[in-house]
Design brief:
single chain, 399 residues, alpha+beta, Protein Transport Mog1p, Chain A, 7-stranded antiparallel sheet, 10 helices, 32% strand, globular
Length: 399
């Protein structure tokens, strides 16, 4: 309801919108947040639409990427050799969604996603894509398609928030919020539209949105946050209701401030005001590297999520020290880090987490490795120095 206590008006200075699903039968079950790391290989992205800015209209995205795994078209690719490049797109009939790409002879990869375009249009589009002197894509767009937005996406950067709700029966919704702009919304929407069976426009909390239904029992909704620097994705999986029922749920969503959302959080969620003291208690028997600032860790979520975030930050810091010390021949520094990690099997926080997930076992594997030959046994043999950052997501911490 506009103007209600706790509502965040569009464009309010300093206002961070939090999604409150306010409908009888729906209950907020969990909340968590954490910092994620930008994609290192992200390049310029360009979004084109056919005569309209609607998210669900005909269009395409062209985006440079340094990730070879993104150049894929499934089991039945449509391969077209062109001068200086090769197009690889799904071989599907009619004007359906496609996601594939173009590999230039110099190795540059450009990901292409299309919606509502037939094969002839897709091939014509691919022929008109070239590279500038910096290796970024240039597009000679087919007639009728106009550039809507372009730039380097913020994908993966900043604080991400996840708010989960349970609804009637088995229905559930997870609302994800992360920094970004219209470009990021477009890219996320295209990712899901390529999987969708139907797409239509709507409004959520006074903002434009698009609904992409992959099946009768699931839906993704993307909200354009008025240019205020946030992207909202609502994932209904499953959703046991028709389009009218889905519209009723979306109509109940409003954007509120943090205090209003905390008021309806379940009791096991660690609140913002309590996070520092809870983290300090969790790490009370954990040795910390010199200079490690506990106050820099202030995760919010249920107790498991907060504990996992806190202890992972410490593990990353100790392995940082172990790797750096070995590189310069600092025996004392390496031994200090190894000894600290060797004691991790007795840390209360890891014993608490042991039965709720795999984190404790992974920490102990790396502890054994730094106190052994520096390799971790898993699906394959990994070297601690090259594997720990991606294993624990260490880049998301201030180090």
């Amino acid at each position: 309801m506009p103007g209600a206590v706790g509502d965040v008006s569009e464009g309010e200075e300093g206002g961070t919108p939090y999604p409150l699903l306010d409908l009888e039968g729906w209950v907020l079950t969990s909340y968590r947040e954490g910092r994620s790391v930008p994609d290192a290989g992200a390049g310029r992205a360009l979004v084109f639409r056919a005569g309209t800015a609607d998210l669900g209209s005909r269009g395409f995205v062209v985006e440079r990427s340094d990730d070879p795994a993104r150049w894929s078209a499934g089991e039945s690719p449509d391969v077209v050799e062109m001068e200086g490049k090769t197009m690889l797109m799904p071989d599907v009939p009619g004007p359906l969604a496609r996601m594939g790409g173009i590999r230039f002879d110099d190795g540059t990869l450009v990901v292409v996603r299309t919606f509502g375009m037939d094969r002839t249009e897709v091939v014509d589009l691919a022929r008109g894509i070239t590279l500038d002197t910096g290796g970024e894509p240039l597009v000679d767009a087919p007639e009728g398609f106009d550039l809507l937005v372009a730039g380097v996406p913020a994908r993966g950067s900043g604080v991400r928030r996840h708010v989960s709700y349970d609804g009637p029966g088995l229905s559930s919704a997870t609302i994800r919020v992360w920094p970004g702009g219209r470009l990021d919304v477009e890219l996320q929407a295209f990712d899901r539209i390529t999987e969708a069976g139907s797409v239509r426009s709507t409004m959520v909390g006074g903002w434009d949105a698009v609904i992409a239904r992959q099946a009768e029992t699931s839906a993704r909704v993307f909200v354009v946050g008025g240019g205020d620097g946030y992207v909202f994705e609502i994932d209904f999986n499953p959703f046991l209701g028709d389009d009218d029922a889905l519209d009723a749920v979306l109509a109940s969503i409003r954007w509120v401030d943090r205090a209003a959302l905390e008021a309806v959080m379940p009791p096991d969620v660690v609140r913002d005001a309590d996070s520092a003291s809870v983290v300090a208690e969790m790490l009370s028997d954990v040795p910390l590297p010199e200079g490690f600032d506990v106050s820099s860790i202030a995760p919010v979520g249920d107790r498991y999520q907060v504990a996992a975030e806190a202890v992972t930050a410490v593990v990353c810091a100790w392995i940082d020290q172990w790797v750096a010390a070995r590189e310069v021949g600092d025996i004392d520094g390496a031994e200090e880090a190894a000894a600290a990690l060797a004691g991790s099997r007795e840390w209360d926080v890891l014993l608490e987490l042991r039965d709720e997930g795999a984190l404790s076992e992974v920490v102990w594997q790396f502890s054994d490795a730094v106190n052994g030959d520096g390799t971790v046994e898993g699906g394959s043999v990994m070297n601690v120095a090259t594997a720990y950052e991606s294993t624990f997501g260490c880049d998301r911490f201030d180090r």
